[in-house]
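Narrative summary of target 7.
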Amino acid sequence: MRTKTGIRSPSFVGLAPSSEASARAKRANTARDTLPELNLRRALQRLGLRYKTNCQNLPGHPDIVFQYAKVAVFCDGDFWHGRNWSQLRAKLQRRFNAPYWTAKIAANRARDKITGRSLRQLGWCVVRLWETDIKRDPDAVAFQVKRLLRDRSQR
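Modeled conformation, tokenized:
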């Protein structure tokens, strides 16, 4: 199946879940309002920042949007978006359904690059944050976003 970006999604044909528990866990993942995203939004609110969420009219539907500064923030899951990709890819090669998961995450990473490029061409600043960084210290991450917004508004 091709997406709007033209990147082919891997097919599930011929693959089975490694276990019912893993299938349930993967189905429970959501595209919006994830725990890291909610934690970051709360931290941004504590800093007095106003934003929109899941902006449907922008490429990639950013998780958090500061329209006045043209900043689009994505809260990326470490697994789904391939943090430390070379290490993750090596681990996936030793797991169940390795070809599917390697292709799936590689397609997600390629889509992320296209989305970022599209937003930058429209004049947006793209910020990609990793879930573990947000979980570790959402206030510190929110402060980094605030500093970026301040710097962009001073231009």
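Helices lie at 20-28, 35-46, 85-93, 98-121, 131-136, 138-153.
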